[in-house]
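hey so u asked for the seq, here:
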Amino acid sequence: MATTGLKSFFHPSAFKAGILCIILSCLIWFSFGHEQPQFFKTTDARFSDTMFRVRGSQDSSGSVVIVDIDDNSLKTYGQWPWPRNVIAELVDTIFDSKPLVVGFDIMFAERDRTSPSLFFEKYRDRLTLKDPNNRVDPSTSRQQFQDHDLLLAKAIQGGQSVLGYMFLFREDFLKSEGERSPYTTLDISIDKIGIEFKDLKLITAYRPILNIAEVSTGTSTGFLNAFPDPDGFIRKVPLFFLMDDQAYPSMSLEMYRIASGIHQARIHLNNRIPQPYHALDGVSLGDSYFKTDDYCQIGINFRGPDHTFLYLSASDVLQGAATQLLKDKFVLLGSSAGGIKDIVATPFSSRLPGVEVQANVLDNLIQKDAMVWENQSEKTVTYLGIIVGGLLICSSLIYLGPLSGLLLSFATIFSIGVCNYYLLFLENRLLGTSFLLTSLTAVFFTVVLFNYLFEGRRRNFIRKAFSHYVSPSIVNELLKHPEKLDLQVDSREVSILFCDIRNFTSLAENSCPEKLSSFLNSYFSLMTDIIIKNKGMVDKYIGDAVMAVWGSPLHDPDHATNAVQAALEMVEALRQSGDDLQLAGHGVAIGIGINSGIVSAGNFGCERHFDYTVLGDSVNLASRVEEQTKKYPVEILITECTQKLLPANSNSRFIDTVVVKGRKKPVILFEPLYIKAATRD
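ran it, structure tokens below
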């Protein structure tokens, strides 16, 4: 028994293959540690893009307005870059409208070459009028000529503003000692004593590209960088970068902070991740808390496609149109003009003006609804989903049938995406499910493949091998639970029936082949139907004889009762057939012998041809008992072994004790008379 159980344990099956796939998926997920491979990150991002498009556009807070240096503005005031006296005039007009704060999504990294002062400086020695008496005095200073940079600097001082700048992240060997650093009025701290900025997992920059010193007169500065993912889409932005062991805030964060009157920010560590990892959990500004990923990035909750926010053309603002719309607003000065090429790709649009990315981030901060990565929840949900979902798929494919299993498997995989959308995404939470879905898909195909290779073949064998010899209920039971069928040779207790036609040789000699063939077909059909009806298996036809077995291939605790009941019905059916079943003009009689005992059951034969049958001394004895019916005026004889297995209220009579051919030990024979039907249920 132990050996059989061990063989069964290691015997390959679709369910075991599915379980192995589940275990391997969990081990692979564990091996990823805290960082998934880029492939799954990108796939998760694509899923979130799809959910954004399914959700559609959302209303913004209405607090963010974009002053757009658009194509119409360039047509009106000339190509970019504009002289900074024009920009100064635009800034003055904006501040006259009393906005909360102005953010510059444009940079002034070089001096304005159109400034008269710069022109004078460059051509001082050549400036001569036609009248020699009006020659320019060489001692004239630059300050006596208009300086557009200084005009812009003065305009920027007219209100609260945040100047944008860029960071470079690759070493270009242009960084020098004493180089200016970005300035900020924000006091930044960490929530854990003894941890410095350099210990955090902030993205590290190499050097900044700053605005020139002349125009750096804003309230504060903030970087404009937004990293696209490997597929080119922008989905998240950092709130802080690290350079020279110092943290620097983004422009959107600074605009929100300045408008809120907050002077301190605090970076919070994720205490669930052990040191020295120092992963981040979020950033707090006053009473506001913004959840971030490990690199201090927030997921952008995009409001919709391009021009979801209010755009005002810079040319219209310069002309005083609609400036009342800027009052008490967060104003972003940027450009959507195609020639300036500040265009990025987002989940909603492949051509979104870069300034609108800043608008989305700022609006997320205002409404406190940025997308949050559920990194810790993702690991738990993935393990749970692989195990529960995998087991559900395995069970459905194996025990519910092909169509039901397929539908339930698809429903399981589909429900994960639906739950992710409704329970998390609509609550501004991002949970990666690509590895989970990949694992469940792998489990599905593994079970289907192994089911085809092993279970499919086995079921086809069962159907072909037994459908003509056993009852449909047994075939269906074997198909539903093929594990109950062991086609390997083993020992089991069964009841064997042999049935033979009396004087068949003489009757056959007096019959033509056509009538003999017709008779045998009708006779075998009648006997076989009764055997199958009583849960037996027709093992073989031997000339005019029939051999049937109960208790194999499917275990039957009432094998003896069912065999005897079948014998009684076979005799009765032959009597009632009367003239319908005759051979050579005579009715036929049969003799039936039944024995119960241990046999060897399984496939016997060679590689090219084999049959499922039973062999052993108990089989031989059943054949010998059938021969004894010729010596006694009875049609059915059973052995003592079979008689003892019949229900107590069954009726049978003792016939004789005989020694059959090939055996030394006497055999006690009985004739069954009655089997109570209730015992067969």
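The radius of gyration is 46 Å. The longest strand covers residues 590-605.
lmk if thats what u needed
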